[in-house]
């Protein structure tokens, strides 16, 4: 199972004074990338109060069915002022099967962390399996 929930505030730079034309070009390119992900899950890019935001959420059988982690890594490269969080529960991630992981996007870098409030999944979220 690969469950994910996340958001990104898309910013061209961390300076806070984005070039409007360049930012719109980045957003248009990101919109195409998101459209190509073609899945039944939540993959949304929209402008709110003059600022672009991406929201994602889904629950698939395997990680390979969604490139949402790749989306976060791509945004880090093309819009390094962006920031956001992606919470992931992946029971096929070696060494992290019983954790909710958080990917943090900040200043052009994606880092991976254990979400202490939701981990370990058993017993924090679910009871142990008993026969």
From TrEMBL:
Q: Which InterPro entries match?
A: Imm7
| One Pfam family, short name | Imm7
Q: Which domain of life is it from?
A: Bacteria
The name of this protein is: Immunity protein 7 of polymorphic toxin system
């Amino acid at each position: 199972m690969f469950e994910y929930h996340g958001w990104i505030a898309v910013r061209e730079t961390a300076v806070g004074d984005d070039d409007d034309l360049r930012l719109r070009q980045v957003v248009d390119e990101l919109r195409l990338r998101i459209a190509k992900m073609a899945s039944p899950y939540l993959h949304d890019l929209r402008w709110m109060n003059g600022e672009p935001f991406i929201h994602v959420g889904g629950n698939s059988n395997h990680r390979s069915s969604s490139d949402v982690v790749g989306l976060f890594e791509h945004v880090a490269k093309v819009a390094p002022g962006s920031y956001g969080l992606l919470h992931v529960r992946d029971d096929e991630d070696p060494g992290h099967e019983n954790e909710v992981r958080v990917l943090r996007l900040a200043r052009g870098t994606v880092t991976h962390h254990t979400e202490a409030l939701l981990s370990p999944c058993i017993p924090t979220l679910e009871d142990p399996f008993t026969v």
